[in-house]
Amino acid sequence: MTYERGIFPGLLQTGEYAEAVMRAGDGLWWEPSYEERAERVAFRLERQRVVFDSTPPRRVEFIVTDDAFHAEFGDRELMRRQVEHLLRVADRPGVDLWLLSATTRNSPAPHAGFTLLHFEPPAPAIGFASVAYGPSPYLDDPADTLPLGRVFQRLKQLSTGPAESKDVLREALRRS
């Protein structure tokens, strides 16, 4: 389960989009380096391959706020290809994509995203809280991961469902 605000999650990014995101931080979060950016993008794409090409397919749910469409990285054509990619990923077995308005009233997670990973018992769920600056905490105590699951379920209730989200993406492509 992944919820992200203002940016498409790494597992949903095209290589081009990931490169543009990395380029925006090049020389700021790490020393300026094409090699560093290329390694980060390659890592992201490999992680996607592992998740989406697994047998049997993994169950993956994403909630993305609509302001991710307005925080453009690269040019308009790159963003168009990113939306086309979202549609292809959303059509994969075991993948649900939910869209949430960034201005949703009473959002239980208005400022930052998170990821919650579930494993076969007895392994505990692991949470990862996204932060913009500094290290992101990993959470494995049920006192932390259970609330993340409840927040994710509440965000789904506030979101546009998977079928309607695909319609929104198709409409965005028609308008671009």
From TrEMBL:
Query: Pfam families under this entry?
Result: DUF5753
The source's domain of life comes to Bacteria
Annotated DUF5753 domain ranges read: 2-171
Q: What is this protein called?
A: DUF5753 domain-containing protein
Q: Which organism is it from?
A: Saccharothrix longispora
